[in-house]
Amino acid sequence: MMDNHYHLFIQTPEANLVEGMKWFQNTVTRRFNVRHREWGRLFGDRYKAVVVDGESPYYYETLWDYIHLNPGRAGLVDVNCGQSVLDYPWSSLTGGYALMPHERAKWLAAEQGLATMGVEDTAEGRKKMIDRLDKRVAEERERSGFVAVDADADKRGSHLGRGWYWGKQAFAEKLIKLGEGVLGQKRQARSYDASLERQAHGEQNALALLDEGLRLANLSADELAGHRCTEPRKVLLAGLLWKKTTMSQSWIAEHLGMKNAANVSRVIHRMDLSRMEKKVPETLWCFVSEKMKENEP
To answer: Quick one: which of 110, 77, 133 has its CA closest to 11?
Structure first.
């Protein structure tokens, strides 16, 4: 638990994360408000959920490290001055993994976690685990716990910081396939649009449009940041993505090198298609024009 957020690494045998998190956050809020005589919301927004590939120990281990090294990255413990990750009290290391088995909460799967990390649930094994974490903080500090995306992963969606899953691309494809039945159903509520499965499906479509648009615009992903937000090719692609996909303006800004959602909003509302034709390659103009007309009455 940090000062403005928390991390939970949860394994559930049923597809009930939404119900579980609703109960958890509501219960914590009620108890906090009663204890401190406060009222209103305790958590600022909906939680972010990242689905983890459990078939590969790599993704389990890197997420485990990412969570427990958070106090080191934030400078809340200074290993180089004699402190340890165990000196941060609001952690499952101090409150669970480093304790004797009979002292731990029953819901904490510490034995499984220690086994996955390659150490025994003994005093020596637990010390070895803590020493490894302290060494990572001492050597890496601000980057401790961050990991390079696996070579086989889809870098556009598999990322602990901004992705929707943590695993190989085959894992993501499996999840999408499992959700196809739900995706094909008629939407019953506006909030359904925000589901991770629908976002993943929409993002695939958006990325396909973006890749083809960049090719026709003769732009590489590395070149995007070097062009102004008002560069005609970028403006045209931003308009296409906003009109024909479900991606947010923040997503468009990130993928087109336009810094922030405000820039995207500004250029989209000022865009005059009638004046764009002569400012971009003909192949790009034809592509965007055809896509804009698709599914229109």
So the answer is: 110
Q: How far apart are CA 212 and CA 233, in angstroms?
A: 13
CA distance 199 to 202: 5
Residue with tokens 């045998």: 13
pLDDT in tens, 32-84: 999 998 888 888 777 888 889 887 788 888 899 999 999 998 889 888 888 99
**Can you list the residues of the chain whose pLDDT is less than 50?**
186-194, 197, 297
CA torsion 127-128-133-136 (nearest 10°) is: 140
Rounded-to-integer distance, Cα 8 and Cα 1, Å:
9
Give bridge partners of residue 158 from the DSSP assignment: 165
Q: What is the pLDDT of residues 233-264, one digit of tens each?
A: 999 999 989 888 878 888 898 899 988 888 88
Please say whether the beta carbons of 9 and 116 come within 8 A: no
Q: What is the distance between the alpha carbons of residues 68 and 56, in angstroms, rounded to a whole number?
A: 19
Encoding tokens for residue 135?
């060494």
Q: Give strand pairing partners of 165.
A: 51, 158
Architecture of domain 194-293: Orthogonal Bundle (1.10)
Q: What residue has token string 């716990």?
A: 145
Give domain limits for the chain: 194-293
Residue pair 240/291 in contact (Cβ under 8 Å)? The answer is yes
